[in-house]
What does this fold into?
Amino acid sequence: MADSTVTDTATFHFETVGVHAGLTRSENGVRDAPSFLFNNSAHGAAIFNGTAEAFCYSRIGNPTVDVFGKRMAALEHGEAALATSSGQAAVFMTIIAVAQAGSNIVVASSVSESSVNQFKYRLPPLGITARFVDDGNINHVEQAINEHTKAVFVESVSSIDLLVSDIRALATVAHKAGVPLVVDNTAGAGGFLLRPIDHGADIVIASAAEWLSISGSNSAGIIVDSGKFDWEKNQKRFPQFFEPSPGFHGLKLWEKFGNLSFPVFARAAIMRDSGPCLNPFEAFQLLSGLETLSVRLERISSNAISLALFLEDHAAVGQVRYPGLASNPLYHVSTKYLDRNYGGALYFTMKSLNELDTAIFDKFKLVSRSGSVGGSKTVFIEGEQPEEGVRRRIYVSVGLENIKDIIADFEQALSLD
It folds into this structure.
């Protein structure tokens, strides 16, 4: 029996792809990819220079990590993927791969504090600036793009406001200007809840800790390229893919890799030279997580909508924000893009501004404080201390426990006793 790779996943459903994509089969069943062996010195040099395909060094590519990347590309409906050491590494590598000193990116939604810090404080010393359009207004995004813009960046579901972005509209604006739409799809749970590429996104990135891992505490990230952005039409804006590459003996990436020049550049240049690679054991754990992703997200989503409805009816609770609630100001956008379920993240505020607003944090018995979300356990995160007169947001990542136990814990914590 000849070797074959389980890559034709178009006929499989999401759950099947999550178990099988990226594996190679032979007469002995499933086997690993080739070891780091070179035929000769010329063969080794060709691999390191990007002119031959094989594994040569774990910082650039590893068999186990490669399976995880291929599986993520299949789940997100992309053409190629690159696994990284963290979600923030995925963000940073993507921006550095498309932008250079003197250029900018347009940020089209409220984004996580970590991304804000990166955009505001880490990129400017490198000569790259961010233009923030927090309200996500399409007209404002279009106005923010100029001749120096290299990408439009957005979170599929804002980690601050929990509002779903209008990806199709943003893709239209970005492509009209000749730049790719980059979507942080951490909240999309590996494509289970939302596949931005299906709606026009060009590059999808995510932190792989949240929801993809069973515990929610792994450190990993992923970059998935759709392979659809027309880099050649916009080559004046992205010369790094068309001019001779000094780090690769003058290789012109576009001539060899075409529309996949971006992920090749991100791997062979950014990953090779700066080193934020994913270690194989993390990849192994994440592959195990992907096999149960569907069933876990179904339970998590079911628990989350039940908890959101309970909170919405509670006398002590003020605002409740969850993508699946009809009271969500952009509920019509949620139903447009989230066609399976609505995920496990929500936030709420208290009606009162007195000490109850903070006292409830110490009353939970089952639910705990945590900085890691998307795992099997229900946790909450205290939002930043707001301005005077503004109610603090309490963010909740709903887990797999029995919903009756989750609600009972919230009920006693919210009580005035």
Summary: The longest strand covers residues 149-155. The chain has 14 helices and 15 strands. The two ends are 70 Å apart (CA to CA). The domain at 293-413 is CATH 3.90.1150.10 (Aspartate Aminotransferase, domain 1).
